[in-house]
Amino acid sequence: MAEKIAVLGAGSWGSTLANMLVENGHSVTLWARNQQQVDQLNTEHVNPAYMKNLVYSDKLVATTDMKEAVAGAAFILIVIPTKGLRQVASKLNQILGELDQKPLLIHATKGLEQNTYKRPSEMLAEEIAPEHRAGIVVLSGPSHAEDVAIKDMTAVTAACEDIELAKQVQQLFSNSYFRVYTNDDVIGAEFGAALKNIIAIGAGALQGLGYHDNARAALITRGLAEIRRLGVAFGANPMTFIGLSGVGDLVVTATSKNSRNWRAGYQLGQGQKLDDVIKNMGMVIEGVYTTKAAYELSRKRQVKMPITESLYEVLYEGKGIKDAISQLMNRDLTSEIE
């Protein structure tokens, strides 16, 4: 059944998902702030700042008018960087009130808010009144936009405490190459999605320094243990972390040059300064900000996260990467099951 869908955020992931939803037979309007970007999408059907090789469907409509985008939409997909999510959500709440709409909200934002440490669904719940939303569903999993754009086989998770709402999202997105599973563990899905970016920076740094497969495998495995520990401390189901939004997302993000977090880490390992890496990336590196939030949160909750702590020291305290690695490898020996 064709649905009217609004997509907020025209970066690589938002625009790719919008295009896929059009190809799934839905009516999609994509909102972006930049008029030039919108004009290129509408006339040339390209988005070169984010997806250089993708030609978008001519049925995809882009606009800078959020009210125009969401008017009549039964579903709103929000793909906004964490630091801008509240501002967009607040504006959306006002518009939904004016339109008297109650759509199902779906978000694909991966991160934790600075200072409050809130997950994206918590931020949306605080900014968008209950009478303006039918529910909030998390879309998460191992899914580079570049791979989805070429219809590479992809599997992700739709997570919601109300599993029937998750099933609606499952039906909306699923097709011959994009398979959606359901899960009722929103906490686990969001912690997995956010924290894997930290480990991806570390994995890129290791490769930038010249380390090989053994080192990467060790980092990913022990990084997953840290992600699980923090998530479980907040009530997540530990089984979620061996699923798509846990180990799946971690593996794809920590092993691919398509990951901007991996690329950022690689450049750091090559000796570049963090400020230069951020400036040259051109897109938000969520893992840099999530590292700070996760480090502070782990200390508040007294959760052991030595890899996260070491990366925090590298990113925010100027510690050398080689010194951080040496510190990690020379910690007191302990059990793996801890």
Task: Describe the fold and architecture.
With 338 residues, the protein is of the alpha/beta class. The chain folds into two domains: 4-184, NAD(P)-binding Rossmann-like Domain (Rossmann fold), CATH 3.40.50; 187-329, N-(1-d-carboxylethyl)-l-norvaline Dehydrogenase, domain 2 (Orthogonal Bundle). It is built from 15 helices and eight strands. It has helices at 12-23, 35-43, 66-70, 82-99, 120-127, 145-149, 163-173, 186-209, 213-233, 244-254, 260-269, 274-281, 286-301, 306-317, 321-329, and strands spanning 4-8, 27-31, 61-63, 75-78, 104-107, 135-140, 154-159, 178-183. The chain has an eight-stranded mixed sheet, with helices on both faces. Strand 4, helix 4 (82-99) and strand 5 form a beta-alpha-beta unit. The chain is globular and about 60 Å long. The mean pLDDT is 97.
What's the CATH C level of the largest domain? Alpha Beta
Structural class, judged by helices and strands? alpha/beta
Q: CATH architecture of the largest domain, please? A: 3-Layer(aba) Sandwich
Give the termini separation. Answer: 48 Å
Instruction: Tally the helices.
Output: 15
Runs in which pLDDT lies below 50 for 5 or more consecutive residues are none
Percent in helix: 40-55%
Number of DSSP strand runs: 8
CATH topology of the largest domain: Rossmann fold
User: Quick one: biggest sheet?
Assistant: 8 strands, mixed
What would the average pLDDT be, to the nearest integer?
Answer: 97
Classify the beta-strand content into a percent band. Answer: 5-15%
What's the helix-strand series?
A: EHEHEHEHEHEHEHEHHHHHHHH
CATH-defined superfamily of the largest domain: NAD(P)-binding Rossmann-like Domain
Based on CA atoms alone, the radius of gyration comes out at 20 Å
Largest sheet strand order: 3-2-1-4-5-6-7-8
Q: What is the 3D shape? A: globular
Work out the count of structural domains. Answer: 2
